[in-house]
What does this fold into?
Amino acid sequence: YHHAFIYGEKLFNNNPQVDKIYETLVGILSKTNNWQQLIHISDKALSKRVADKNTCEANKSIAYFEISKIKRYSELKESIYFIKQSLKLRKHFPPYIKLYLELLIQNKDYNIAKKFFKKAWSENPHTEYKSLLSTLAINLKMDLANLTKFVVGSNKNNYESKVLLVESLISDKKWAEARNQIKDLLDLQPKKEVCLLMAKIEEGDSGDVQKINAWNMRSKNGEEKNMWVCIITKKNQKVWSSVSEGGYFNTLEWKKPMILNQFHDELEMISYEN
It folds into this structure.
């Protein structure tokens, strides 16, 4: 990869209009974790008009994100600086928000994290970073449910907000309030996660085995939650990464999961054998 990049960079400098040269260099740099060079080459590509502004800024934001991750346990202030650069280029991207919240908590900026969480949630409620709420509640010495009510605020009627509040009430063992809050989510065909939450409520509140089992069984027919899906391999990931588990750079999209991954793998194997 090192020699491929040297050759490719020379070619890019001599003739940046060579077909897919920028994309090829980006692929090499992502495989070698050369994030500083990705920022540099993206600036060049934009100045030479061989890639559009959105593509270059997205690639640079990923580079800043990766640099921030590298620095988080050695140079925390620099790590926070770099994740802020990522957010400037890609404002509401959940993986960046998650890392920024993690860094604020790590830096013990709990009140800043609390305000930013509320702002981020009001702009784009997302499951990617909601797991951090319990950690923040512990550090703020607050009930999780009360912190959740603050965070969802004016966005409390959003589906993700309702789920988050029910989850926090379950965590705080406030069964009656959880049961009351989940009513709005119990339509004719509730989603899988709602059925599983209802099973937890029955387990904690009534202990009725039949009701618990009924909700667990019903969850099998419920709609799946969104996941990160690679647009190349069609495989699902629970956590976003700049390079997908299949090895492709910036190919993950937040969408309904491909349920039949095993059949996809089998088809690939059959195709390969033939």
Notes: The chain has 14 helices and three strands. Residues 269-274 have pLDDT under 50 and may be disordered. The CA atoms of residues 232 and 248 lie 8 Å apart.
